[in-house]
Amino acid sequence: MAPVNTIRLIGVFYLTLLMQQVFSQPAMAGVTLSTELTDKVNLELAAGNPVDLIIEYDDAEIETVTKTMRNRLAKRRDNDEIRAYKVEKYKALKDRVDLPTRRPEIEDLQSYSHLPMGFKRFKSKVALEAFIAQAGVKAMYINEKMHLISIQNSSLINQTFSYKLGKQGAGTTVVVIDNGLDYTKSDFGSCTGIGSPASCKVIASIDQVTSNRIIGSRQAATNHDHGNNVAGTIIGVAPGSKIAAINVFDTASGAYSNDIISAINWGISNQGKYNIASINLSLGGDTKYTSPCSNDWSSSTITSAKTAGISVVIAAGNGGYTDGLISPACSPDAVSVGAVYDSNEGGISWGTGCTDATTAADQVVCFSNSANFLKILAPGVNITSAGIKLSGTSQAAPHVAGAIAVLRSAFPSETASQLQSRLTNTRVPRVTDTRNNLSFPRLDLLQALASLPTNNNFASASALSNTNNSGSVSSSSILSTKETGEPNHAGNTGGQSVWWKWTAPANGQLSLDTHDSNYDTLLAVYRGTTVNALSNVVANDNDGFGVGNSSVLLQAQAGQEYKIALDGRNGAAGFVQLNWKLNPSANANLSVSITGPNAISLGTQQPSIITVSNAGPQVATNVAVTTTLPAGATFVSSNANCSATNNIVHCLLGTLGVNSTASLTMQVHWNSIGSNTQLLASVSSDLPDSTQDNNAASIQVAMSDGSETGDSPTLPEWGMIFMMALMIAIGHKAQFRSLKLNSKMQNKGTGH
């Protein structure tokens, strides 16, 4: 029988063949930075334009020496002595490359003294080619504009809105089993030591490799880029959580099952102490499993963690499988995570041998493993965190690990299974992997956080503060309902409303809006005490701000309680941002004028144009025009919302902005005219008016003298004219006959 240590070493040898490897960014093939750089540079130089490029010098020799210095000085990071050494050697390296190619066509823009980097401007292709030919040039990069994870990637999973709701994972910890991290980075609170100062987010940093030398002499990994990116992604999703970092990788980028088991064991034993919500494993082996691997070394360990209340989140792998996962993601109780794009990244060919000719948000990445037992999808391409940009299922997994920390903080009494169910509930978006036509839930933190809003019903409306004249409140309408008898807000059926109430502390103009909400809102304000008998004050669907946001203005009366309903158009729901402001000194300077007619003819219909102006300083709400007609005049129609009672016409113009005007045309029929021929108009609004002497205007209307083309006789007048003409004609005819008879008689007498 072989000695125990020999058996152990043999076992370790075979374990090595199946060892875990970090799923960092797969190397790009076909679409590479050098190709993009060449295309851009050639295009710019051909056009006679200079190009600005970032240069990376080959500092491998320097790093080898400084690594030895750190080991000799027992320093985890560079001290003053090492930094001074690097500054000296960086300068020598850069001079060795730059001096042979120095010419007017190459301009130094910046030389970074503490980095093997430079920033140069090249003015000719010949100069650029000469520089590239130098042996010390490691890489050249386009001066690219970067984006933060909290802007691009967190928008897809709705982390921004969970943050505004105050759901940030406070009081929880996530264990990151990876290749360590640099806790001095600002992303982790600029720690000077574990847990120090108070801003430090790292409560543990454990070197599992050097503390466990079962597999001979191994040195812990010193390149923490992958661990920094993973831990930074978790903090980006759950900024209130803490990180416990356990390094299980050596300098050869190898990790062993025994170290991983020890790390998970540490998490279980410290769950109560640190309120550990999740463990992230962005690593895996080489064996493909086409079904859950219940017999794998990871299965029991992960199940024990789940029993302790810890969700173990694991990268699905970058093998591009469409019918299998690798270990430990294949474990039945693992929260396995595949990768999707979060935006259009253009066509990409990956070093794993697959290509996505086109890309779009919520498209499964071709390198992502997939199978019918994959649990969830999350963003995994070009994830920038802690100053490192990587792609892979390694980057998708920490999004989910951070989300579980947020859920644990929000729902502290729920089990790991319950929290995981929130991630995959029927409300979250589902994405179809077109390679195998399987559908998976895609991480949506806002949907996962959803619970029945406390202000779902009218009777349980939340009170807005009236101690200040302005404020805002963040909430969620997800899972809200519409009550029986509830009105259709802003004329839309809606279906998922939440309610607030507010009592005006003083008279003034109240503005309310839903700006920064993430869905198409309906906003309405009411008076009343029961939901089925409310008096509408004002309502709005879209105000043109953002996508479907709403806003209203009203003149509030001191002591009046207003009920505020916020619904979603056609039943939409999401993150709610309600903002309000009361202006007790609001006023508007309204004026009114009338034009035409100056003269009328009885029995005709004539228009009058009434124009209203607002000189401010505030927007006028519920602007109304009242017109008094003289006796004998009748209101016919208008292009405004008008109604008439006897000789009084009321017209509603609604809201009138500062320095804005509105006109209405009123058609009036003139039946008769008396001594009073004055047409009088006045204007009012909800706001006090600073200058009231221009709130009314009038014109005098006179009878036409008939010279106008429009002054024609009426039908009765035509009849009288016709009768007079007929009588005159008859009279003329009788007179003619009489004259003719007399003439005949005279002629007869002359003949005797």
From TrEMBL:
Task: Share an example GO biological-process annotation for this protein.
Answer: proteolysis
Q: Which organism is it from?
A: Candidatus Methylopumilus turicensis
Q: Where is the composition biased (Low complexity)?
A: 464-480
Instruction: Indicate the family of this protein.
Output: Belongs to the peptidase S8 family.
Please give the superkingdom of this protein's source.
Answer: Bacteria
User: What protein am I looking at?
Assistant: Conserved repeat domain protein
Which segments constitute the DUF11 domain? 597-701
The GO terms describing molecular function are: serine-type endopeptidase activity
Write out the entry's keywords from A to Z.
Answer: Hydrolase, Protease, Serine protease
